[in-house]
Amino acid sequence: MTYSTSSAVLQQVPYYSQWASPELVPAIVGGTMRAADDPRWAEYGASTPEEYEWWAVQLCGVACLRMALGAWNLDVPDPMRLAADCVEVGAYVHREDGGLDGLIYAPFAAYVRSRWNLVADVYPDLPADQITKHVAAGNLVMLSVHRTIRVLDPAPPRKGGHLVLAVGADEQHVVIHDPSGFPGRSEYASVRWSDLDRFYAGRGIVLGRPRAPQA
């Protein structure tokens, strides 16, 4: 459902963290707790706490997809199932040094279209003033921002590297679900457009509701 006025739009979208226990995000990202010690790690679909720990930090894009699936009343698989799908289609690529390249937008969008029948369009150049237009049209927008948007860092070291989901907007703010946000700042978090500019890399993926079957 979408609520709108002449100047604002806000969509009802379920929130999914990229971590098994959203309330533990401050401790995990702050380094006072290992993600492997998250007591809910098995709910993630991982085989071991260590597998969960390795993947959870990577899966902001998967969390955004899970939110979109939930918003449009589709099945919401566990994060590890979606991660395996993304590896299979080349949206995540394991590196020889043990790291991971991704989320790679083009194969991810192709996967979303073919597997879930959603609209999924990649925008290498997505000006901030176009975000409201897409959200007002009933879409959800995955935005590449720096992860310190969770605390509105006054001087983030760079832009991009983390994905959040734009679920609303008005003249003053964009409203986001942040998969790695802190409690109280993860769901329906309002970010002033002037603040967004510090974090936003100017690119993203626009997701739209399931397409009608072709006759």
Secondary structure: elements and pairs:
Layout: E1 2-4, E2 8-11, H1 25-29, H2 49-56, H3 60-71, H4 79-89, E3 93-94, E4 100-101, H5 105-116, E5 118-123, H6 128-136, E6 140-145, E7 162-170, E8 173-177, E9 189-192, H7 193-199, E10 204-210
Antiparallel strand pairs: 1-2, 2-7, 3-4, 5-10, 6-7, 6-10, 7-8, 8-9
Could you characterize the architecture of this molecule?
It is a single chain. With 215 residues, this protein is of the alpha+beta class. It has seven helices and ten strands. It has helices spanning 25-29, 49-56, 60-71, 79-89, 105-116, 128-136, 193-199, and strands at 2-4, 8-11, 93-94, 100-101, 118-123, 140-145, 162-170, 173-177, 189-192, 204-210. The strands form two sheets. Strands 1, 2, 5, 6, 7, 8, 9 and 10 form an eight-stranded antiparallel beta sheet that branches. Strand 3 and strand 4 form a beta hairpin. The longest helix has 12 residues, at 60-71. The chain is globular. It starts with a strand and ends in a 5-residue tail after the last strand. Residues 1-6 have low confidence and may be disordered. Pfam families: Peptidase_C39_2.
